[in-house]
Amino acid sequence: MSCDWVREQIPECLAGTLDKSARAVVIEHIETCANCRKELGELGVVWRGLEGQNPPEADPRMRVRFQEMMDVYQEAFRAGQQAARQTAGAPDRRKPWFTSPAWRAAGAFALLVAGVVCGRFLDRRVFDGSSQPGAEMAEMRAQLEGLRQLVALSLLDESSASSRLRGVHYSIQMTQPDAQVLQSLLRAVSRDPNVDVRLETVDALEKYAGEPDVRRALVDAIAVQESPLVQVALIDLLGKIHAHDALPALRKLAEDSQADETVRQHAELALNKIDSRKE
Amino acid sequence: MAADDEQLMAGVREGEIAKLEPLFDRHHRALFHFFLRLTSNRPASEDLVQDVFYRILKYRHTYQDGTSFRAWMYQIGRNALADFAARHKAEVALPDEAGDFAAGGPAPDRSAQSAQEAALLHRALKALPAEKREVLVLSRFQGLKYEEIATVLKCEVGTVKVRVYRALRELGDRFYALSGERAS
Question: Three-state SS for A13?
Fold first, then answer.
């Protein structure tokens, strides 16, 4: 057996995980090979020395932080599902936005998170004497944002259309764009079977529409829409953000005699809007 | 009989979120020590553990049956650490002294020598290139099987075997260079 092979077995030999037959080969080899015997001796000292490097215990407050995350996530998810059941379908746009069960659930989520955040903030300041409240608050804001993303993603994946609507609402509350949430929204705007979800998703995508990839996806989504309502919403959004790269698709649509009359009119309007900005 | 890690994670993936709690209880200490050994930064290591469990929740749908949960978790841990390192370059560095790491359980008459050896080993470990330190920590301290390390590092088991040996060899060279003596 070669020395190289034997030496590669040394860590497992020292850990006691080498299988019996390989171990027997190693032992037989080192009885006759002084260099490998020396290697085993030297590395054995290092291996055993590492055993004495004991790290400190984990802080029990890590468990508390984890539980907070779980509680907030589960509570928000339940609130989202409950609100979705109450909404039962399309949101009533005649009522003030803050009276809808969905937004009440969002409020409950915000209050719950605020409670946890304040609790943690005070806890750290009292027990650690922390003098960096700005950094603490920034970290907590980031955690809140992360929880919004999680809840949005989970709800967007639900089988109930009302839950997916809630997911879209949560995504609107996010201050930072998240790639995974964005992908879910782009999927939803093209493929969600529910028209209301697709309509809400168009609104949610507005804040991402500055990105060329998103604009392209919005243009592509027009072609696959069965609902003229959603097509109009997409066209209006492209007009609103003056999407120059959407001009060829909008022209084609405006000239398409097979297209819905309202869709064609809105395509004309969007073209004029974008052209006027160009001039 | 308690459910194994893989069964629990499959449950989390299917929406039984509460099953993440026993997984946290089982693994957060080891994960904390993993990060602490690689960064020697306690607050950062605590944050990284939270980040890993947050990511497990976020990416739970990507967990595949038949994958070792531990290997998957350490894969996520590596990504979290890489992101953290990119954001806080200056903070991810081992301190010069052994710091939080205590030399454990030597006989009283050997305690001074052991403490000195522990400090030298710590310095030698610090001087190892990051990828060698990582493979050694996964193998020596985290107790991962070579098959699991291969999954974490996305390489062959044979490659892991060679990498662990080379890392230990280099650690030995650095340690003996610092201590000025070699085993007879």
Answer: helix
Q: Tell me, what's the ipTM? A: 0.80
Residue type, A195: V
Closest by Cβ to B164, choosing from A11, A51, A74: A11
Contact across the interface for A58 and B141, Cβ inside 8 Å: no
Contacts of B106 in chain A (CB under 8 A): 52
> Are A248 and A218 contacting, i.e. CB atoms less than 8 angstroms apart?
no
- Three-state SS at A88: coil
B57: contact with A, CB 8 A cutoff: yes
Task: Name the nearest CA neighbour of A197 among A237, A145, A161.
Answer: A161
* Residue B105: inside a domain: no
* B102 secondary structure, DSSP code: E
**Is B184 within the bounds of a domain?**
no
Q: How many domains does chain B have?
A: 2
**CB contact residues (below 8 A), chain B span 107-166, against chain A:** 114, 117-118, 121-122, 125, 139-141, 145-146, 161-162, 164-165
What is the CATH number for B35? 1.10.1740.10
**From first to last of its 279 residues, what are the pLDDT tens digits of chain A?**
789 999 999 999 999 889 899 999 999 999 999 999 999 999 999 998 887 677 788 888 889 889 888 887 887 777 766 666 665 554 544 445 444 555 555 555 565 565 555 555 444 444 444 445 456 566 666 766 777 777 777 778 777 777 788 888 878 877 776 788 888 888 888 888 888 888 889 988 888 888 888 888 888 888 888 888 888 899 999 998 888 888 888 888 888 888 888 888 889 888 888 887 655
Distance CA B184, CA A222 (A): 77
Measured from the Cβ of residue A172, the count of other Cβ atoms closer than 10 Å reads 17
User: Of B160, B30, B44, B20, nearest to A73 (Cα)?
Assistant: B20
Helix axes B69-87, B5-13, angle to 10 degrees: 70
Give the CATH number for residue B121: 1.10.10.10
Closest CA to A50 of B156, B98, B148: B98
Tokens standing for residue B91: 């903070």
Domain final residue pick, B61, B93, B125: B93
- Is B44 inside a domain boundary? yes
- B93, two tokens: 């560095």
The model carries a pTM of 0.64
Q: Are B105 and B155 in contact (CB under 8 A)?
A: no
Range of the domain at B28: 1-93
Report CA torsion sign: B38, B44, B50, B56.
negative
